[in-house]
Amino acid sequence: MTIAIYAGTFDPFTLGHEDVLRRACQIFEEVIVAVAADTGRQTFFSFQERVELAQAALKDVKGVRVVGFQGLLSEFVRSTGASVLIRGVRNGSDFDYETRMACVNHALNKNVQTIFFPPINGTQSISGSLVREIHRLGGDVSAFVSPVVCQALEAKKGTAQ
Ligand code: COA
Predict the structure, then answer these.
(1) pLDDT means over runs of 10, the chain (161 residues)
(2) In sequence order, which ranges of the chain are alpha helices (DSSP H)?
(3) How far does residue 97's CA lie from ligand 1's centre (Å)?
(4) Which end of the chain has fewer CB atoms at under 10 Å, N or C?
């Protein structure tokens, strides 16, 4: 059985992420959504909130486990026995960044291959920072995130983002 890992900051988990994940589930028997604790940047949602939101957004998706991880992704991959990393690639700049990450992760763990998913379902304009900004300015983000993430954003209204 090939285990695949879909890692990210997921601040928050968007419908773009969900689209990639659902398509990955059509290929792999088990997909682990791995929420990174150490992302090198200040996040709007805490580590625990990001894990809980991804869990809630994906509660009806079979074959998926959501976990948090600390430290290097390549080491986390090793600890799970996974051999595939999944990444969504929306445009040319994502491709440059993701190619660098794929090379580095492969250099750190020769047993891991990265597979890119293009945005075939109209999700190419979704990003976490845009969702946070639209929400901060009072806009409707329901086209970009699941209802449970909308509620979490509402609950944090007024918090710096
Ligand atoms: N659809 C919609 N949005 C997408 C998307 C898709 N298919 N794919 C990415 N995004 C967006 C996210 O919303 C986010 O937007 P934002 O920057 O505006 O907030 C951005 O693209 C990337 O976020 P995310 O998808 O959560 O992934 P990431 O690039 O933050 O993940 C890690 C990076 C966590 C995988 C990487 O930093 C890591 O591995 N960290 C662990 C430490 C490590 O091993 N470092 C060395 C790595 S080589």
Answers:
(1) 96 97 96 95 96 97 96 97 97 97 98 97 94 95 97 85 57
(2) 15-25, 47-57, 73-80, 92-108, 128-136, 147-155
(3) 10
(4) N
